[in-house]
Amino acid sequence: MENSSREKKTVAMLSVIAAVFLTGFKLVVGFLTGSLGILSEALHSGLDLVAAVITWFSVSISDKPADKRHPFGHGKVENFSALAETVLLVITCGWIIYEAVSRLVTGQTHIEVTVWSYIVVVSSIVIDIGRSRSLARAAKKHNSQALEADALHFQTDIWSSSVVLAGLIFAQFGFHLADPIAALGVAAIVLTVSYRLGKRAMDVLLDSSDQSKISEIEQVLKGVHGIRTWHDLRVRVAGADTFVEVTVHLNPDLTLREAHQLTDQIETNIEEAINRAHVHVHAEPDE
User: Fold this and answer.
1) What confidence tens digit (pLDDT) does each residue in 222-252 have?
2) CATH for 2-205, among 3.90.800.10, 3.10.120.10, 1.20.1510.10, 1.10.287.130?
3) Torsion angles phi and psi, residue 237, rounded to 5
4) 242 — phi, psi (to 5°)?
5) What is the reported pLDDT for 189?
6) pTM of the prediction?
7) Do 50 and 89 meet the contact criterion of CB atoms below 8 Å apart?
8) DSSP letter at 174?
9) How does DSSP classify residue 282?
10) Contact, 186 vs 160, CB < 8 A?
């Protein structure tokens, strides 16, 4: 648990550092060149910095042990963080759509192309590819929805920066409409992915049933010799932790020790099947 928490915090902090660098770099270049486009990208990176700080904060406290006030731990902070990042992604999409439509309507699609424009955009793409991959690996390894949301956030930055890069290239050939048109396509993709991420975060926050995990647990229960039937199977997720409750019916002739050993076996089997599962089994005699 401690190593997992340390690795998650390290990845999140590296993301914050990268966001600080990109925001500062774009601000300096934007002011030096007077490019409104680069200054807008700096504001976009500032929003990324806010998202990275939110993620770092959430993973810093999500793995704290349970206490009297929080008997189920602090894992849902990660899910709340993922929901907050979804909101930031939607805000980013709103800004992209507004800028793209505004340029198409007004006809002001001219893009100022300089060497620094390419340096900033290419640097942003390279850094975002690195941090999105590291975040995605850590998210999958530690079942972290907060890191997954952060990885998605910076994947969308790769898409938007690629659109900016394509716009710069097309602009040099005189086709300035390519930039706002492609930006609208990116916004549509980001909104679709944001909806899925936001729905998952809301499902966890509202303790919606995870049917895939329920099916997995039912397969484990079917494989335990001695269980005659079960009911009231409940599964809730908080961050990387899964809490399982189930009532099983056993042979009424079992001794208390035998029944206890069997419920221990059930709990162990479920915990082996599901990472970071906390299982509570209640046994009843099968009449």
Assistant:
1) 988 888 899 889 988 877 788 899 999 998 8
2) 1.20.1510.10
3) -115, 140
4) -120, 125
5) 73
6) 0.62
7) no
8) T
9) E
10) yes
Rounded to whole angstroms, how far apart are CA atoms 86 and 156? 12
Output the six-digit token pair for 9: 């915090």
Cα atoms found within 13 Å of the Cα of residue 268, Cβ hemisphere only:
7
CA-CA distance, 20 to 251, in Å (whole number)? Answer: 62
Tokens of 119: 């340096």
Torsion of CA 113, 118, 124, 130, to 10 degrees: 150
User: How do the domains of the chain map onto residue ranges?
Assistant: 2-205, 211-285
243: enclosing H helix or E strand = strand 241-250
**Calpha distance 70→75 (Å, rounded):** 10
**281 strand-pairing partners:** 246
Alpha helices in the chain (DSSP H): 2-33, 36-62, 76-106, 115-142, 145-172, 178-205, 211-222, 256-273
Number of C-beta neighbours around residue 135 at 10 A: 28
Q: Which residue has the tokens 């995870």?
A: 210
Instruction: Give the residue carrying structure tokens 């908080």.
Output: 238
Fold designation for 211-285? Alpha-Beta Plaits (3.30.70)
Is residue 124 within 8 A of residue 22, CB to CB? The reply is yes
| Mean pLDDT score of the chain | 80
d(CA 65, CA 125): 38
Same fold? 2-205, 211-285: no
